[in-house]
Amino acid sequence: MKFGVVVFPGSNCDHDAFYAVQSVLGQEAAFLWHDSTDLAGSDVIILPGGFAYGDYLRTGAIARFSPIMRAIADFAARGGFVMGICNGFQVLLEAGLLPGAMLRNRALRFICRPVYLRVENAHTAFSNACRPGQVLEVPIAHGEGNYFADADTLEEIESAGQVVFRYCCPDGEITNDANPNGSVHNIAGIMNREGNVLGMMPHPERACDPLLGSTDGRFILQSVLNAALDRVSTTAWAVANVNRS
Amino acid sequence: MKAHVYVSLKKTVLDPQGETIRAALQGLGFKAVQAVRQGKHFELQLNSQISEAEAHSQVERIAKEVLTNPVIEEFSYRLEA
């Protein structure tokens, strides 16, 4: 499978994502420049962490208008898998590909440390390698990760199972103390209604190698690989059946 | 012509920066300050060919589509001759 890693001016986790795809997942990875509309035949798109366009105006606000985002919006509309990590999540929110918005962390500080996430929905393209309720240790590194959505939107995404990851204690309990940034309902990661676009503030690509202290991020990357492989085999099966009939 | 656009968080959205400033002002003895909301101010210099009606429509679009995130923010603006 081919993973396209988008590079905006100011992206700084692009190489980490590339490494995770190539060396950990053993898949093909390609950098996609923000100024292009060519997704290079990617099966999965990763919007990496960083500070696209210096986070000027609002996080993700300028990146949203770059040419590659038009191509990604089309790709997502056709059901393509898109994964926004940290700044990538912020870009997806600004682009309207995911509901809600980001506010400054409630303590107004940039936070860079490992946190615990509980898998709230294990039947998604981004969590199928996890057990329901599994607790993952994955680092965060952000100043604006305080997820906000109005009451109606919250109810909608909660009831549709779109909340994929929530900040929790090491034992999986969801508490206010386990919430690093003030996100509503301890939300750390959500997907769109169709289930092919995910945004998450924690960095799975920074938790893929034993050298980095945790390998729990692999569950998330492996999940999206499973989903992409599954789609290819389902499509091949459907095509074969059509040819047979 | 110049346009001044003011962007602030919606009243329904918690403003942790405004709240921190309020607490600091209280600490400094400005007891009259009950609440602080922090926002942004943009100055757009428009060329002289643009009519006032066109300026209104363009500034409104810019404010709505670029300068604010409608999920959390609202804006107001004024034109200056």
Kindly describe this structure.
The complex is a heterodimer of chains A (about 240) and B (about 80). Chain A has about 240 residues and is of the alpha/beta class. Chain A has one domain (about 1-245): Class I glutamine amidotransferase (GATase) domain (Rossmann fold, 3-Layer(aba) Sandwich). Chain A is built from 5 helices and 11 strands, in the order E-H-E-E-H-E-H-E-E-E-E-H-E-E-E-H. Chain A has helices at about 15-25, 65-75, 85-95, 150-160, 215-245, and strands spanning about 1-5, 30-35, 45, 80-85, 100-105, 110-120, 135-140, 145-150, 165-170, 185-190, 195-200. In chain A, helix 2 (about 65-75) links the parallel strand 3 (about 45) and strand 4. Chain B is an alpha+beta fold. Chain B has one domain (about 1-80): Phosphoribosylformylglycinamidine synthase subunit PurS (Mth169, Chain: A), CATH 3.30.1280. Chain B is built from 2 helices and 3 strands. Chain B has helices at about 15-25, 50-65, and strands at about 1-10, 40-45, 75-80. The longest helix of chain B is centred in the last third of the chain and has 16 residues, at about 50-65. In chain B, about 10% of the residues are buried. The mean pLDDT of chain B is about 95. The chains are: A alpha/beta (about 240), B alpha+beta (about 80). The interface of A and B includes residues 61, 94 and 101 of A.
